[in-house]
Amino acid sequence: MPERFSVSPGRPSPLGASACEDGVNLAVVSHSAERIFVCLFDQDNDREIARLALPGRSDDDVHHAFIAGAGIGTRYGLRADGPFDPARGHRFDPAKLLVDPYARWIDRPFVQHPDLAAPRAAAIDTARLVPKAIVGTPHPTASALPSRTPSFIYEIAVKAFSQRHPQIPAPLRGTVAALAHPRAIDHLLKLGIDTVELMPITA
């Protein structure tokens, strides 16, 4: 491990990577993983410069660590080790780099490649193929945001919602940006919706 990085248990919340004054707190959930590793990468290419096991694990299966020496702009990925038992839904393979599901920024789009589906026995490291998450500036804490109970929650499939809307510019249709267009907002307000929940989306 490079001397500039050190790891300690950290906090189990919030999930994802949170920049702090002198490092980064990282928390990720996995019930079945035996160990979770965070891999740090240099800024210029995909060279892995540190692989650190997350030493903390809470009672509700949050693996967590505080990484001293990391900070805003750090590029990272995760690896999970555990049973390889497809019949029980377990396909752990530490050679496969994973994207933090709570990452706010990644450094490139996802691409498909046969090596991503290679069996564990092949031991093919996929770091070169997988986007790296980027530690960003902290978001406001929940206590700083207004607190209210939603009265009408509307679940949206992002692409389908605006794909054929005649009043949304064609380049925006089917995108997340279309949700911020005044015509989309007007439509939601006319329905009496005060909270929008997006169906699962990826980068």
Task: Explain how this protein is built.
With 203 residues, the protein is mainly β. It folds into two domains: 6-134, Immunoglobulins (Immunoglobulin-like); 146-198, no CATH class. Helix content is 7%, strand content 29%. The chain is built from two helices and 13 strands, in the order E-E-E-E-E-E-E-E-E-E-E-E-H-H-E. The chain has helices spanning 158-162, 182-190, and strands spanning 6-8, 16-20, 23-29, 35-41, 48-53, 56-57, 62-68, 75-81, 84-85, 90-91, 133-134, 153-156, 195-198. Strands 1, 2, 3, 6 and 7 form a five-stranded antiparallel beta sheet that branches. A four-stranded antiparallel beta sheet has the order 5-4-8-11, with no helix packed on it. A hairpin with a 4-residue loop joins strand 9 and strand 10 (90-91). The radius of gyration is 20 Å and the shape is globular. The model has no long low-confidence stretch (mean pLDDT 90).
Label this structure with key terms:
mainly beta; four-stranded antiparallel β-sheet; single chain; Immunoglobulin-like; 2 domains; 2 helices; 203 residues
**Averaging pLDDT over every residue, what do you get?**
90
CATH class of the largest domain: Mainly Beta
Total helical elements: 2
CATH superfamily of the largest domain: Immunoglobulins
Beta-strand fraction estimate: 25-35%
Uncertain ranges: none
How many runs of DSSP E, i.e. beta strands? 13
- What is the H/E order? EEEEEEEEEEEEHHE
Largest sheet features:
5 strands, antiparallel
CATH architecture annotation name of the largest domain: Sandwich
Helicity level: under 10%
Q: What is CATH's topology name of the largest domain?
A: Immunoglobulin-like
Count of structural domains: 2
- Calculate the terminal CA-CA distance, rounded to whole Å: 31 Å
Derived from helix and strand composition plus strand pairing, the structural class reads mainly beta
Please give the radius of gyration in angstroms: 20 Å
